[in-house]
Design a protein that fits this description.
Largest sheet: 7 strands, mixed
Strand order of the largest sheet: 1-7-6-5-4-2-3
Number of strands: 12
CATH class of the largest domain: Alpha Beta
Order of helices and strands: HHHHEHEHEHEHEHEEEEHEHHEEHHH
Distance between the termini: 18 Å
Shape: globular
CATH topology of the largest domain: Aspartate Aminotransferase, domain 2
Structural class: alpha/beta
CATH superfamily of the largest domain: Type I PLP-dependent aspartate aminotransferase-like (Major domain)
């Protein structure tokens, strides 16, 4: 498929705008040469982007079991609410009195999501999960510095953590202390006990963790960190398994980020727009980014800035319509529906794991939460077929591959998260494909080495692409 830059011809264009009806003004810093923009007709333009759209595989196209990403179906009512003129035809610099409904959205979302997570306050400024991690760590840093404790320079991160955890900690100016997992896939409590000390600023933890297990020692873990003077950060990536059932605040966590674009069914974008809302306990509330929304005694809503705010982490107030979609989801499901969604996510994952255990080896052969990890190391030794080969084979069957080679503590890993919005029929079809590919690995390994065969782009030279990437189009 050609790039848009490779289409068209000089002089082809589309006049959509009216003629300029004001005097033209030349800028003092004009470009020395015109931008090399493609010159295409409207027909070519629409065909190009329609062809691109047909090559995309999203949740609306088929099964998308991308582990730890919670690729659930996004109810269309969310989009309808976010498209209401009162939410779309606004400007962030309008007077507060003219956007009271929008401010109420923020206040209501903060109240409900704080209740779900066991937190006391929440900001919606962060634009994504990793942005929320960074913001939460800045809150921890501000808290320690406000107390005059500048010796706490280390953040403890388990070896099974998402890669954004240590990256966010380093960006916040901390040194990362990595602790190993125990044989059961959970935190090695004794290793944690040995790692904490007067230099411990906090712990970053996901629970359920990356291998899909709820850590049975969670209360002991947070107590160890608190006793050492540190704070506990909850990575909300896997909240979908426990929302409405158990609250991170009750587990002992002081600050949390939520992926509204995952757990609360607002669409994943190509890098955005998302929302990494950050909630915290009362001790961290004075440091939250400002401004925040507060309800006055007369019932009106106003922006306020916390006393010791770390300042803005994003222009204005976050991705507003993403919050509208998340709030719609919460209100639609209600108090009974939120935990039911979590329970169905756990049920679906355990159903798939049970069926796939017939042939695949599970990294941890215990009941899982929302996701599970398969270890294909034995399949590789027996047949030469790798986790990557199985993933490529899934593409030929209309299934988006699960997360591959993560977490790093599991060799030849495939991490599967079916989410609660898939039917039993879909799960059975997917399991049949996985089992068929296992059989194919034993009967015709080369077929999987060659896969995919039916996709627009065949097997790529991934080593070559990684070592010699072509990151931009160069005009000839």
């Amino acid at each position: 498929m050609k790039l848009i830059f490779e289409k068209g011809a000089p002089g082809q264009h589309l006049d959509m705008l009216p003629s300029c009806d004001v005097p033209e003004v030349s800028l003092s810093q004009e470009r020395k040469a015109p931008l090399p923009l493609p010159q295409v007709s409207e027909t070519e333009l629409t065909r190009h982007y329609t062809a691109l759209a047909k090559r995309v595989h999203g949740v609306n196209d088929g099964f998308y079991p991308l582990g730890s990403c919670t690729m659930k179906y996004n109810p269309k009512i969310n989009e309808d609410m976010a498209a209401l003129p009162g939410f779309t035809q606004i400007h962030p610099l309008q007077p507060e009195s003219t956007v009271q409904g929008c401010l109420e959205v923020y206040a209501t979302a903060e109240k409900l999501l704080s209740e779900i997570t066991g937190m006391d306050a929440m900001t919606f400024q962060p634009a994504a999960g990793a942005h929320g991690e960074f913001t939460g760590l800045l809150l921890i840093k501000a808290y320690h510095h406000h107390r005059g404790d500048s010796t706490r320079t280390k953040i403890i991160v388990p070896d099974s953590a998402h890669g954004t955890n240590p990256a966010s900690a380093v960006m916040a100016g901390y040194t990362v202390v990595n602790i190993p997992s125990a044989p059961d896939g959970c935190v090695d409590v004794e290793a944690l006990r040995a790692a904490v000390g007067p230099d411990t600023a906090g712990l970053m933890l996901t629970n359920p963790n990356t291998v899909g297990i709820f850590d049975k020692n969670i209360l002991e873990i947070t107590k160890i960190v608190h006793d050492a003077g540190g704070l506990c950060y909850y990575d909300g990536a896997n909240l979908n398994a426990v929302m409405g059932v158990v609250r991170p605040g009750d587990m002992g966590f002081d600050v949390i980020h939520l992926n509204l674009h995952k757990t609360f069914s607002t669409p994943h974008g190509g890098g955005g727009p998302g929302s990494g809302a950050v909630g915290c306990k009362a001790l961290l509330k004075p440091f939250l980014p400002g401004p925040m929304v507060e309800k006055a005694e007369d019932g009106s809503y106003h922006f306020v800035t916390p006393e010791h705010s770390i300042g803005r982490v994003k222009d204005f107030y976050g991705n507003f319509t993403v919050v509208v979609k998340a709030l719609t989801y919460v209100l639609t499901l209600g108090k009974a529906g939120i935990p039911e969604a979590a329970e169905n996510a756990v049920l679906n994952a355990n159903y798939m794991m049970k069926r796939l255990k017939e042939k695949y080896t599970m990294a941890y052969d215990v009941p899982c939460m929302h996701e599970f990890v398969m270890c294909l190391e034995d399949l590789l030794h027996e047949t030469g077929v790798s986790a990557m080969d199985i993933a490529k084979g899934l593409l030929d069957n209309g299934i988006h591959p699960p997360t591959m080679y993560f977490p790093l503590i599991v060799h030849e890993a495939l991490m599967i998260e079916p989410t609660e919005t898939e039917s039993k029929e879909t799960l059975d079809e997917a399991c049949d494909v996985f089992l068929k590919l296992w059989d194919l690995a034993h009967s015709d390994a080369q077929a999987l080495h060659d896969a995919p065969l039916t996709t627009p782009i065949r097997r790529l030279d991934e080593v070559g692409a990684a070592r010699n990437p072509v990151l931009r189009y160069t005009e000839e």
